[in-house]
Design brief:
The chain is α+β, with helices and mostly antiparallel strands. Helix content is about 50%, strand content about 5%.
Length: about 500
């Protein structure tokens, strides 16, 4: 019976292959039956393999990832053109988005649910003060961020030893609690056992999602023991964290105190619709827990990784660190850096941007999916195609970035001293599904980076050097865990 089922699947895939072969598809490498090109990918750095394929076959090329036809984009102009279209705003038919996330939340959502929820999140972000321009609401948001920054600075100094300090754990607590406050309206004590478990589950979950990647394209792999353990961890963590969120929601509904949170805003929208006898649409309790997980995870994972990389690069490049500190001293005088100073601190902004370029924390971006048959240039792109904007390939392409492996913040400084904004710089992706919290992320990166370098000088522990290699165990490019020495500046 199993043999005949397997044979039927093979025949179906061959039929689909020959149907698609009649189209004018992008060029690309040949793949194996069933597996496609999966075996060609470096399991530790699949983004590098995808980049090599794209650089060989062109900025638009196609391959098969198991059962999923995939198109790679590595030209920033084409990425902008494609992702501006509705037909590229879906999600690829992956086991993660459709099997585990079930199309809920924001990251995995499509169609009307995605449009309604993105509009809600964007509106909430603006209402909370996560905006570019000065306003009382932005001042309040800045105060919230600075509370987290100041706690991190205090812990950096108080926990410094001759061997340095574990900045990652401190930043995870402080940035995580900032996101807890904005997402759920509550914070945790650093030694709270539930909070420790939530941090562990979030970090390990990201790693297991990376390990279980092949299941996205061949779901039958989830029955293989190694993959099965990862899926079990992900599903168990998802179930338990959702239960934690439901309890927080229950407490909030019994005593609504902190109203400036996504949980409160979502619940108020539900109440408003019920009171007006309006259709709830996508505003359900199920959608809420998935959305909260997305907002918290997206806010912590990439921001924490980027700040971690920034501190390591500053310690590894003391001359660059000194230039940023000199700029701050000249511009700020005795003042502490705030958001209002950001336009003037060009060297700091350029260094943060260069870190985002050289260490693309989400190297393949978040794959899109086509919602209908469409085209890129003169190539046919079938409905259901996975579209991968290979961010790492764009950010490391010598056509756009001479000596791409060299850390050079001056890439982002124009000859007149202003901040440059190259078209090939896509840290938050682009188009209709670009990161909705990009401005908030910039605020966090700037305020943490500015305050840390304003107060401290960073260096490796005595007798050691900074390791800038990548810990590739997961879906994000993380630094290898290591301590830093922090010395208060006079």
């Amino acid at each position: 019976m199993i043999f005949y089922l397997f044979l039927s699947v093979c025949i179906l895939l061959l039929i689909l292959h020959f149907r698609k072969s009649k189209k004018h598809l992008p060029p690309g490498p040949r793949g194996l039956p069933i597996l496609g090109n999966l075996l060609q990918l470096d399991k530790d750095a699949p983004y590098e393999t995808l980049a090599q394929i794209a650089w060989k076959y062109g900025p638009v090329c196609g391959l098969r990832m198991g059962s999923v036809y995939t198109v790679l984009l590595t030209d920033p102009k084409l990425i902008r053109q494609a992702f501006a279209k509705d037909s590229f705003s879906g999600r690829a038919p992956l086991y993660l988005t459709h099997g585990i996330m079930k199309g809920y939340g924001l990251i995995a959502a499509e169609g009307e649910r995605w449009r309604e929820q993105r509009k809600f999140v964007a509106s909430s972000i603006k209402n909370f003060g996560m905006v570019k321009f000065e306003s009382p609401k932005r001042d309040k948001m800045e105060e919230r961020i600075l509370n987290a920054v100041n706690e991190a600075l205090e812990k950096f100094e108080s926990r410094q030893t001759k061997d340095g300090v574990n900045t990652h754990n401190i930043l995870h607590h402080c940035i995580g609690n900032l996101m807890n406050l904005l997402t759920f309206g509550r914070v945790y004590d650093e030694n709270d056992e539930l909070w420790k478990w939530l941090q562990y589950t979030q970090e390990e979950g990201v790693k297991h999602i990376g390990v279980s990647g092949p299941i996205n394209f061949l779901p039958v792999f989830r029955f293989i023991p190694t993959f099965a353990k990862s899926i079990e961890f992900i599903l168990d963590g998802q179930s338990k964290t959702h239960e934690v969120y439901r309890k927080i929601l229950q407490v909030y509904r019994s005593n609504p105190t902190e109203i400036n949170s996504f949980l409160a805003a979502f619940d108020e929208e539900m109440k408003r619709r019920i009171a007006n006898n309006d259709d709830l649409g996508s505003f359900t309790d199920t959608q809420l827990v998935y959305l909260l997980a997305d907002i918290y995870g997206a806010g912590v994972d990439t921001t924490l990784a980027t700040i971690g990389w920034f501190l390591l690069f500053m310690a590894a490049y003391p001359d660059e660190q000194a230039k940023i500190q000199e700029e701050m001293d000249n511009i700020l005088g005795e003042n502490m850096p705030k958001l209002k100073h950001r336009p003037a601190l060009i060297r700091l902004e350029a260094a943060i941007m260069e870190v985002q370029r050289i260490k693309s924390v989400v190297p393949t971006g978040i794959p899109h999916g086509t919602t209908e048959d469409t085209k890129i240039e003169d190539y046919d792109i079938p409905k259901g195609t996975m579209i991968i904007p290979v961010q790492w390939a764009v950010h490391m392409n010598p056509l756009y970035w001479p000596e791409p492996h060299t850390f050079k913040p001056e890439r982002f400084i124009e000859k007149d001293g202003s901040l440059a904004k190259p078209d090939a710089f896509l840290p938050f992706q682009i188009g209709k599904r670009m990161c909705v919290g990009d401005e908030f992320a910039r605020m966090i990166l700037y305020l943490f980076g500015a305050r840390i370098l304003h107060q401290f000088s960073l260096s490796p522990p005595p007798g050691r050097t900074i390791d800038l290699e990548t810990n590739s165990n997961g879906i994000t490019l993380l630094p290898i865990p290591q301590k830093l020495c922090v010395k208060r500046r006079h």
